[in-house]
Amino acid sequence: MSEYLTEWFQGFEKGINSLDQKAKESFFYSCGRNCVEIGVKKVYEELYIDSGKKLDTFFLRLNEMKTVGGEIVNPGKVYDITFSHCVCELHRQGYIHSDCICECSRQSIIHVMKSLEPELQMQVDKISTVLGGGKECRFRISIEEDA
């Protein structure tokens, strides 16, 4: 990795960390979408179909995957998705070292969930991240009741 890119990404991290949550969401929306579109979205869609299009079954079956896990916190309402390690290529290549980039992961989860169930209203919260000092990355998906 070049010294220039190392310095550039340090500034990138500082800039991201200075944004408010709404700005981070806007900034990382396309990043998260593109990441899963070129990566694992199809795997999640196939698993969802194989799970009978039932979220409880889908989240349990996530545990069959190598680095991803799922947990039912409250059946039909609240789920956790976990990653045993940071799967972000920018981190793996040594460019990013803080969890500012984890908004991209949160946005990718939102995008995948919307692709599985387009009418689903949900909230996705970052619970813990490896880059933030956690033992795993954990995101909570709360299904919102129809208004």
Description:
The termini are far apart. The mean pLDDT is 93. This protein is α+β, with helices and mostly antiparallel strands and 147 residues long. 46% of the residues lie in helices and 18% in strands. Strands 1-2-4-3 form a four-stranded antiparallel beta sheet. The relative contact order is 0.16. This is Transcriptional regulator.
- Mean of pLDDT: 93
Span of the ends, CA to CA = 50 Å
Compute the number of structural domains.
1
Side-by-side strand order of the widest sheet: 1-2-4-3
Largest sheet: 4 strands, antiparallel
* Helix fraction by DSSP (H/I, runs of at least 4): 40-55%
CATH class equals Alpha Beta
How many helical elements? 6
Indicate the low-confidence ranges by residue numbers: none
What does the radius of gyration come to? 16 Å
Number of strands: 4
Structure at a glance:
This protein is of the alpha+beta class. 46% of the residues lie in helices and 18% in strands. The protein has one domain (3-143): Muramoyl-pentapeptide Carboxypeptidase, domain 2 (2-Layer Sandwich), CATH 3.30.1380.
